[in-house]
Amino acid sequence: MEELLPEEHMEEGQCPLCGEKAEMGPWPDEIEDDGTPFTVIADKDVNCKSCRKYTLGEPLAALKADYGSRLHLISGFTRDHWDRTGERLRLTRDYLDKHLAQEPTPSQCIEKLLLHLRRKSEPEGFGAEVELHTQRDKAVAFARSRKEFKNFIDELVKDGHATEVESKRGPDIVVLKLTPKGCDRAKELDPSGGEPGRPAD
Question: Hey, what's the torsion of the CAs at 83, 119, 156, 169, to 10 degrees?
Fold first, then answer.
């Protein structure tokens, strides 16, 4: 599994988007009346194994209040952006209002999963084994839950775009291999290959 290296200014905490363990900060030293740290200062960096690296460009409290039911989609945006560009996505209200205007359909979520598999299969292409963690990697398909992510995986296999390989890493790990049909479909969706460093949309 890919690991994110800790940074000196970061502190351990919980990702505001997905709830996974994350490195966050720098956070302010002031304390609220109830004993919790202030969360009103924006432009704080987060390093998460699921959402990857991103920057909060809005106060955390406002983010959760206005977009609380769609945090899984925001998690998908940050993961997709980092995987494609290797750069942090700065989450602002303007960006979120624009990109959350229309929720992705299940077919589009499965296509995101397919493109992720293609990136992880390079340079071998079809036949390379790709490990997916059903909890930490659900952001690659903008999935709301582990169950929904597994359903997307099952549909990808059912459509003949990937095959599942028996995993000895436990129930949380799914191993997939792209098929030639899956590679062809991924190229149709993104002829550029979606390699890191590609300009963001």
Answer: -80
